[in-house]
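During the first year of the project, the team set up a workflow for recording each protein of interest as an amino acid sequence followed immediately by a discrete structure-token representation. This format lets reviewers and collaborators read both layers of information side by side without switching files. As required by the reporting guidelines, we include two representative entries from the current panel. The first entry is reproduced here exactly as it appears in our internal archive.
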Amino acid sequence: MRIMSELPGLGGDKPVHRIGGSDLCDLFGITPGMLTALGKRDIVVRLGHDAYDLEESARRYIASLRETASGRGGEEQVLNLTSERARLAREQADAQALKNAVLRGEYVPASEVERAWADTLRALRSRLLAVPSRLRQSMQHLTTSDVTMIDRELRDALQELGNADA
């Protein structure tokens, strides 16, 4: 680890201790990406290309960690992280529940459901359209006009049902 100290200026300022980015990452135990994020949030003090003010950056980083740990200053970040973790846990639980339901056979592919309903509705349509001829055979007193009227009503009802969602 390399730390360079600059002598104070004529104004009697304190000396500045420069440290490189990779050394600061090692010191703080963070990744370069995290260092960049800390820089964007003005937590680390950048002095130039790959040069940071060690003392001020450490002071601000420690303050940031304290605020986050106490739930004060980094509240938005704490809440975001907490809510994102909770959302992820819910999504993972939902995904696992869905997988388990599929394995238990509680869910079937939509294509199978659609095919079964189509078969059922075709059978229903056929049975309804056969009603007038069955009535003609079993009820001899019905005229051809009566049977035709029953047939027309059934066909109109089926047509209305077929166009219900159009």
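The second entry, processed by the same pipeline in the following quarter, appears below.
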Amino acid sequence: MQSFVPRPPGRIVTQTDYVHLTRLLREGGPELPGASEVELALREGVLLASSSVAPGVVTMGAQVFLVGDADEPPTQVTLVYPQDADSASGRISVLSPLGAGLFGLSVGETASWRAFGRVHSARIVSVLAKHANARGVAP
């Protein structure tokens, strides 16, 4: 069983991500896994125009490079919408514990999430934005 570790408010959310994720949550309802965590980020995050978001912020479609616990190797994931998720290729859903933990954070910050009975954490070392999603292409 996976669950989310609460995070502080103030994530950076693009207007484009806000519109698409709000629609996703409205259509899928509160029973979607991770819905409450993403809804919190949308409600309490700092909303910016996509063109105003500084490089290094984890937005939808971004490739994120992480350094995890000491016994875990560095990893790369891409934050995607649930229908595009494929863990084998590193494409993680924004509604997954890790995805919800990363959404809206920036390089240098640490994401925390609960999975498989323990709390995990990873520091964001690099973010490459996917410009198509950052510029408003619908998911």
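For the second entry, the following points were noted during internal review. The first helix runs from residue 15 to 28. Strands lie at 2-3, 12-14, 46-48, 63-67, 75-80, 91-93, 110-115, 118-128. Both points are flagged for discussion at the upcoming steering committee meeting.
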